[in-house]
Amino acid sequence: MVTSDLGAFAPKYQRVANDLRRRIRQGEWQPGDRLPAETALAEHYDLSVPTMRQAVAVLRAEGAVESRHGVGTFVKEERRLQRRSRDRYGRARKDSRLLTAHLEHTILSAGRGPLPAHIAAVLDDAEPGDEVVIRRRLLTDPKTGTPEEVGASYVPLGIAAETFLEEPTVVPKAMFLCVEELAGKRYAQARDHWIARLPTPEETQVLGLPTGAPVMHVIHVARAEDGSVLEVSESVWPADRIMLIDEYPVEPEAAMPEAPSEI
Amino acid sequence: MVTSDLGAFAPKYQRVANDLRRRIRQGEWQPGDRLPAETALAEHYDLSVPTMRQAVAVLRAEGAVESRHGVGTFVKEERRLQRRSRDRYGRARKDSRLLTAHLEHTILSAGRGPLPAHIAAVLDDAEPGDEVVIRRRLLTDPKTGTPEEVGASYVPLGIAAETFLEEPTVVPKAMFLCVEELAGKRYAQARDHWIARLPTPEETQVLGLPTGAPVMHVIHVARAEDGSVLEVSESVWPADRIMLIDEYPVEPEAAMPEAPSEI
DNA sequence: CTCGCTAGGTCCTAAAGAGGACTTGAGGAC
DNA sequence: GTCCTCAAGTCCTCTTTAGGACCTAGCGAG
């Protein structure tokens, strides 16, 4: 009953989108292939071009196809980067390189600024507007030139003020190793906040996203043994490029103090 | 340079969507308030109704507003359920209740079936099509009647065959406690795969999602001490209702064996 | 008072068409 | 050969127009 008449009374653009998706999955067009032009598709499905465009827009938002203005619409390869939340520190400590060495790092800006509200919201001990050192970065695939990640790091003034972290140049090693050195404390605990959402207009532009494509957003809070914040880092990826993997032991008894809450 | 002329040459529907978003953020309309009708908005912004609708569709996909057919468009409350990945077992073991006691559970189906390809893809030791016991569930907010989560559990035949897990009735306690009892093994390790994407047509219908709204999807693999799979569970939420929180210690030295890879 | 009908307002889908912007490739000028 | 120009093909934005579906409130009949 619940899943009975799916598609029977669905709008045309959805039915057509479903059919196109199926044809792509079945391999009628391979990754990289160009789909027929919108006018040709509209004729084939016997509907108007605007409605046809609406159907293609669905697949574009899903990341199944990519439209190039003036050129055509192409099937995209399904490819998700697997990212592990927990091992980032251990691995980088070992070889001391940047965490994402295969990508090209660009520093969009660096310097002091106010703590954004959405960052302060996940901290108990900070207010929006507090002055911190902010480093905004962009990671690009050097092979294709595709932007893969945009993000920022927020470091307390007491650690980063008057240091090279205020300079808009790429740091020589993993960011957290620099912070540890400057702060004289080790990273001891971390908390990640993961949300999926649609991008801001800025993110749409910087990441070159098609309209309607979602992003994955993580805010990473790192603290020292004494509980003080060493760094807050946030990253935004195109959702269709990323899979987060989290591996952990199941504690036989222990329970955490708080119940799930809402904000 | 990178973020200079944002919006200057953006299409109308985007500029209008941005303006509407700003007005909502600034409190011009409170959560629950009805926006002016599309015809009125179109007149106010001096553009056609279809273009106006496209602008509103942006906010709808973002989860900022909700349109009710024949009634109007209303500002939604921003409200994310915080969900912790790590403490689900500890807490449930403590009071033995269902993990999400405040939601109403419905079993959509239960019985044997083939393992879906996207589940097999995250397992090393299973093939798509393997016969397992599948329980599909829907969680609803009893206060509002809103569907909040749709998901499924996959349990090996060796554990669940010929048991009450094949019956489409709600289990009396947390699912994993039932599995532990039937298998005679404890849950020891877990691995979560998080992805954000646009929903399938089925999910759109079951969760009552507006077009273009993304979902968060997790596949949770639970194994016993000996490495055998006890249960694979997957859940899908509307993305604008959920925030995943993950808290963990930073290991001072240890590194995990494998580098990030692609699939 | 209760019930059912109706009218008006609202959002939803669809078509047809015009103009614009972008890319590519062919042909001609140098 | 190299560079430029141009035309064709493609996707992008926006408008105008039409009809349908859905909900609510008000009115009248019983």
Descriptive notes:
Two copies of one chain form a homodimer. By secondary structure, chain A is an alpha+beta fold. Helices cover 26% and strands 31% of the residues of chain A. Chain A has two domains: 12-75, Winged helix-like DNA-binding domain superfamily/Winged helix DNA-binding domain (Arc Repressor Mutant, subunit A, Orthogonal Bundle); 81-245, Chorismate lyase-like (Chorismate lyase). In chain A, the strands form three sheets. Chain A has a six-stranded antiparallel sheet with strand order 4-5-6-9-8-7. Chain A has a two-stranded antiparallel ribbon with strand order 1-2. At the A-B interface, α3, β3, α4, β7 and α8 of A face α3, β3, α4, β7 and α8 of B. β10 of chain A pairs antiparallel with β7 of chain B, so a sheet runs across the interface. Chain A binds a DNA duplex (30 and 30 nucleotides) through α3.
Record keyword descriptors for this entry.
homodimer, 263 residues, alpha+beta, Arc Repressor Mutant, subunit A, Chorismate lyase, 2 domains, 6-stranded antiparallel sheet, 8 helices, 26% helix, elongated, disordered N terminus, disordered C terminus, DNA-binding
| Helical residue percent band of chain A | 25-40%
Overall shape of chain A: it is elongated
The biggest beta sheet of chain A is recorded as:
6 strands, antiparallel
Oligomer: homodimer
Main-sheet strand order of chain A equals: 4-5-6-9-8-7
Alpha carbon gyration radius of chain A: 22 Å
Find the structural class of chain A using helix and strand composition: alpha+beta
Number of strands of chain A: 10
Strand proportion of chain A, as a percent range, falls in 25-35%
**CATH C-level category of the largest domain in chain A:** Alpha Beta
Low-confidence stretches of chain A: 1-7, 254-263
Report the total helices of chain A: 8
What's the rounded overall pLDDT mean of chain A?
85
Distance between the termini of chain A: 35 Å
Number of separate structural domains of chain A:
2
Could you name the CATH topology of the largest domain in chain A?
A: Chorismate lyase
Pattern of helices and strands of chain A:
HHHEEEHEHEEHHEHEEE
Q: For the largest interface in this structure, which chains are involved and how many residues does each contribute?
A: A-B, 71 and 71 residues
